[in-house]
Amino acid sequence: MILGHGDDLYAVDGKKIISNFSSNVYGRQDMSALQDYLRLHIDAIHSYPEPDASSLVKLLAKKHNVENDNILVTNGATEAIYLIAQAFAGRKSAILSPTFSEYADACSINKYMVQLVSSLNEINDDTDLLWLCNPNNPTGKVTDKNTLKEYIEKHPQQNIIIDQSYEHFTKKDLFTVEEAIQYNNVILLHSMTKRYAIPGLRLGYISTHEDTLGSIKKYRMPWSVNGLAIDAGKYLIKENVNSIDIDNYLNETARLQNELKKISRITVYPTDTHFFLCKFEGRKASELKTYLIEEYGILIRDASNFYGLDESYFRIATQSVEENNTLIEALNRWI
What we know:
The chain is built from twelve helices and 13 strands. The protein folds into two domains: 9-23 and 245-334, Aspartate Aminotransferase, domain 1; 53-238, Aspartate Aminotransferase, domain 2, CATH 3.40.640.10. The chain is 36% helix and 16% strand. Helix 3 (76-87) packs parallel to helix 4 and helix 10 runs parallel beside helix 12.
């Protein structure tokens, strides 16, 4: 496991962090209404939750116009990853890289042979599972849905796991749950953690064909999702909470990228979402990270521990206009 692969705020030795660009969870969402709701329902911690989060499953199934047997609520998308790896243990996996480290970690624990690839064309014909993140972490790029459909239909013997944790942070066309369940070899992962900025609650779900989900459910332990997380999920769906203006957010991402491109020796890579990779020519991302923490209270993601990336890469997730301007100023001064 790569510690702090998403957010290592806990590891900055007591230094005050004013702006956290290292986490792909957008921390400026106004979730005060949810907080108020959970305060009123705090007594739930004194009782066992539903063993399978069935009441939340029903709401999600209704929301996506599918059956309850197509949905499995999990303790974040990460539990979903490990459940799937366990359900198909000992097979051959391909992982579209560079990407989130937990796919490879879950495969390693469950004795897979793993092939790391940079494109769908490189995948061996005898592969049993394909893992891909869409939009991808850390690049922010989306694999075209029609390209994926063509691949899925040509490889019915493979289970295709598509992690759509950042699906609400892009305007690109992605699989809907209704579309995915038409294939018995497609498994979608969803993250309420990411969408609603509640990483401390850990809440996600799997959507797939009922036969496939039946194989995965066998490995799910009871009570893996706590009562407050279940209540939070039900509240967010019932109230139809939508706290992000995605158009403005992506416009601000484009502005931030354009300003960073003006800084010498920084390469800014294209993205389809709110986070993106940068590369510093001749400097280490770890040095930049230390400078930003100590001088500005800014935290970025040193991306050198992603497979296929070196010590010059770092990742940024767009924040508020004021925070982004401070980051631009800080980078210009460091140069």
